[in-house]
Amino acid sequence: MAIRKIYQVGDDTLRQVSKPVTEFDDKLSALMDDMIDTLIYADGAGLAAPQVGVLKRIFVATFDGGSTIVEAVNPVIVKAKGKRVAAEGCLSVPNIHDKVERPRHVVVHAYDRHGNPIELKGDGFAAACFCHEIDHLDGVLFTDKTVKK
Ligand SMILES: [Zn+2]
Is residue 121 within a helix (H) or strand (E), and if so which, with residue range? Predict the structure, then answer.
């Protein structure tokens, strides 16, 4: 396990579209352990693989002060309901917190690190977090979606 370097805005890596994971092997597990370590070390809510320079469709997130850790491989939003505007930040975009409109509720289909299908349900903050992280996998940053008011 190791802390990885978090790529910062301006780096072209953050603007690439990530590829789906096809091998659920020890290398994937090691990467996800590193992502969780890095997320906790950086005191963030979520971290997507491109943020550590790996263009694969993976994110990790932590809620409830670190007591809940969510990991998702090849995540897809299958249901989105409602609207909520709230301030967001990003470990790759230092010192900016701006308002973004996201669905209030989302359902995400994904896989765990072993390749088992999982379903994640997010409300409010968690919904925004899942959307924010999945955007990273498509090269989108929250600053692209800031609500101008
Ligand atoms: Zn982010």
Answer: strand 117-123
